[in-house]
Design brief:
The protein is an alpha+beta fold and 84 residues long. The protein contains 2 helices and 3 strands; from the N terminus they run αββαβ. Helices cover 44% and strands 27% of the residues. A 3-stranded mixed β-sheet has the order 1-2-3. The termini are far apart.
Length: 84
């Protein structure tokens, strides 16, 4: 019996969220201005959550901008702490 449309939608959402997480994390970690930061990325239903620590508010803004780049991102929730 094939999966229900609801199950297929949940599976597709999980795949999309995983792809967004991977692309956002790659964009963040590729930026040399964020090299000395500790940023974790998680995505749920297109909402990208950034957690960890940065050294300045500027780095937090850069991380948010980089995380926004993948297609499918609905919003960025920035939970980064600034610890100089």
């Amino acid at each position: 019996m094939p999966p229900s449309p609801e199950a297929q939608a949940l599976t597709q959402t999980a795949v999309d969220d995983d792809a967004i997480t991977r692309k956002a994390a790659d964009a963040i970690h590729a930026d040399p201005r964020l090299a000395d930061t500790d940023i974790s990325v998680n995505t749920e239903h297109g909402v990208v959550n950034l957690t960890g620590s940065v050294h300045s508010r500027e780095q937090a803004v850069i991380a948010s901008a980089r995380a926004q780049s993948p297609d499918g991102v609905m919003r960025i929730d920035d939970h980064l702490s600034v610890s100089p």
